[in-house]
Amino acid sequence: MPTSKRQRLTAAVLSLGLIGSSPAAIAAENVVFVTGAFRRSIAVTDLEYLAETGKARGLIADVLLIAKQKPEEVGKLLKAELSIPLLLTSRLLSTRLGEALLARIAQIIYPLYAKRSGIPALRAGVINALVATDGKLSAISFLKAYPVDEMEVSIPALLAVLQKAKSVSELIQFFMESPLDGLRGSSERPAKPAP
User: Fold this and answer.
1) Distance CA 195, CA 21 (A)
2) Is there a contact between 82 and 89 (Cβ–Cβ < 8 Å)?
3) Strands across the sheet with 30-35, in order?
4) For the ranges 33-42, 91-100, 173-182, which has the lowest average pLDDT?
5) Are strands 38-43 and 30-35 parallel, antiparallel or unpaired?
6) What one-character-per-residue DSSP string does the chain give?
7) Distance CA 110, CA 7 (A)
8) Are 130 and 137 in contact (CB under 8 A)?
9) Can you state the angle between helices 155-164 and 168-186, rounded to 10 degrees?
10) Average pLDDT, the chain
11) pLDDT in tens, 143-164
């Protein structure tokens, strides 16, 4: 079975399993930062607390102190919402561009011990979050809708992306242009004349 068919089958099975699950059963509980043998987990409840109160607790408090970041600013970022239509997003994530974008992000975040399931898990997390919040997506709503208990964040992959982008706008541009670059090479066809 070709890889894309296998991924679609995995996504369909994941989605069917999610439909019958209660919302509490489909939430990430920990974000696990991994580099080589180093592994540290931050509880999603601690991130949610930070978003709601602007105060850090647990490991996230130490991380923010070392990174010299203000907890209230990070909390605002975690709860910042993006309004996007569910149907359009679902369709977009099923296009070649959407698949390429998901593949790029899935190099950084994916289910712990299941890197190959990164794309279906990302897609399910986004769609579930949009359903649960009536079309509003935030980092916290995504984590609460992510279909696996532990989401791994690859520190080397994250640092590689952050080195290429010095600002949030550059980061967005990096993720949007990179999949387009990959599609341009494989889909160059002669343009059809205008009617």
Assistant:
1) 50
2) no
3) 38-43, 30-35, 150-154, 109-111
4) 173-182
5) antiparallel
6) --HHHHHHHHHHHHHHHHHTS-GGGGS--EEEEEETTEEEEEEHHHHHHHHHHS---THHHHHHHHHT--HHHHHHHHH--EE--HHHHHHHHTSHHHHHHHHHHTTTEEETT-GGGHHHHHHHHHHHHHHHTTSEE-HHHHHHH-SSSEEEEEHHHHHHHHHH-SSHHHHHHHHHHHHHHHHHHH---PPPPP-
7) 14
8) yes
9) 100
10) 78
11) 999 999 999 999 888 888 777 7
User: 72: pLDDT confidence band, cut at 50, 70 and 90?
Assistant: very high
Structure tokens at 169: 């706008």
**φ, ψ for residue 118 (rounded to 5)?**
-60, -45
Comparing C-alpha atoms, which of 155, 147, 118, 135 is closest to residue 42?
Answer: 155
Q: If we measure between CA atoms, which residue out of 13, 21, 12 comes closest to residue 145?
A: 21
For residues 4-29, average pLDDT: 50
Burial class (CB in 10 A: 0-12, 13-18, 19+), 38: exposed
Residue with tokens 């059963």: 25
Structure tokens at 45: 């409840």
pLDDT at 171: 58
Count of residues making up the chain: 195
d(CA 80, CA 168): 13
Contact 140, 74 (CB under 8 A): no
Q: Which residues are registered as beta bridge partners of 15? A: none
pTM: 0.70
